[in-house]
Each structure stands twice: as structure tokens, then as C-alpha cells.
Design brief:
alpha/beta; 5 helices; Nucleotidyltransferase family protein; 6-stranded mixed beta sheet; two-stranded antiparallel ribbon
């Protein structure tokens, strides 16, 4: 199975930093964001190759330069961003996935230590066309207060909140039939 990392985002919320490097190359503890995703994907035996999609003609060229010398024990290949959204990018890599029954799709700005092996097992057992990593709880970044008549009655510092709907984590395992569906819709 191959893993596809979508790394073409402009990182507009990361300005002014992302004016100098792409979101995927944002440094975290001295390493680019994308390197954490690559290293995590490498840890799974069923991942045989990692495909990185970005705009390599622009700032994304820094990603290609970073992986120019082998830093990975898996094959890493690069595909130019199609500039037509996620669906367009998936159509653009169809040939690279032709021998695969499915593939992992990972948005580069999602650092999650999900159990990808368990997700892959579920994908195979259910013979799914798509398996999507979600969460139903989220630890908030700020505290919350219950205020009555201008008086704080209760305060919770950074609580874990139950979400009203499952939140997508930007990590998928997709069957090749998904690309066929995208192709049909784009006609």
C-alpha cells in the first residue's frame, strides 16, 4: 500500500512564516512538520511507498530539496500539485496507484498518532471503499466558564469536550474505486 501526503496547502493562517516556507516545512522542535508525518508512516510495514503532492515549482520545492538525500527507509516520490483541489490531485496520481487496491491519504498538517494498522485492518475486513479517521472528543485550548448574572459559577480549565458531530482528522484509507467516482463526477 502507498501513502499519499497532501502538502500543497498555502498556510495562509501561518503568515508571516509561510511567506518563506510552505506549511509542510513549518519547523517543530527543529524538524519540518512533514517529517513527523513521513516518519510515522514509515513505522507501518504495510506502507511501501510515500507519495508527496505539493507545488514544487513554488515554495514546495523546499520539500523536494529536504528529501533529496534519502532520509527515509521507504521510497518517496513527488507529484506536482494539480492546482485543482484534492479530487484533482487524486486523479493526477491515478497511474502511481494503478496496482494498489487502496491507499492512505494524509493531510500534512494533521499530527495524530492514530492506530493506522487497526484502521487498515478495519478497511480490509469491511471491504470498504473509504475509512475515515474521526474523533468525538477534543481537548480545548482555553478554559470555559458558566456565568450567571455576571458571576462565574463554574470554571473548567481546558476541558475535554464531547463534539456534537464526529470531527474528521484529515486521515483516510481509500479504495481505488474512489478515484473512479471522482473521475465520473469530473466529466
Amino acid at each position: 500500500m502507498k501513502a499519499v501526503i497532501l502538502a500543497g496547502g498555502k498556510g495562509t493562517r501561518g503568515k508571516p512564516y509561510t511567506e518563506y516556507f510552505p506549511k509542510a516545512m513549518t519547523p517543530i522542535n527543529g524538524k519540518p512538520l512533514i517529517d513527523y508525518v513521513v516518519k510515522y508512516l514509515e513505522s507501518f510495514d504495510f506502507i511501501k511507498e510515500i507519495i508527496i503532492i505539493s507545488d514544487f515549482n513554488g515554495l514546495g520545492g523546499q520539500i523536494k530539496n529536504y528529501y533529496h538525500k534519502p532520509k527515509s527507509n521507504k521510497k518517496i516520490s513527488f507529484v506536482q500539485d494539480s492546482q485543482s483541489g484534492t479530487g484533482g490531485d487524486l486523479l493526477h496520481i491515478e497511474k502511481k496507484l494503478k496496482d494498489e487496491n487502496g491507499f492512505v491519504l494524509w493531510f500534512v498538517d494533521n499530527l495524530c498518532a492514530i492506530d493506522l494498522k487497526k484502521m487498515y485492518k478495519l478497511f480490509k475486513e469491511k471491504k470498504s471503499s473509504a475509512c475515515i479517521a474521526t474523533r468525538t472528543k477534543r481537548k480545548e485550548e482555553t478554559g470555559f466558564a458558566v456565568v450567571e448574572g455576571g458571576i462565574i459559577k463554574q470554571f473548567k480549565e481546558k476541558p475535554v469536550m464531547n463534539l456534537p458531530m464526529s470531527e474528521c482528522l484529515g486521515i483516510y484509507i481509500l479504495g481505488k474505486e474512489v478515484i473512479k467516482k471522482i473521475k465520473e463526477k469530473s466529466k
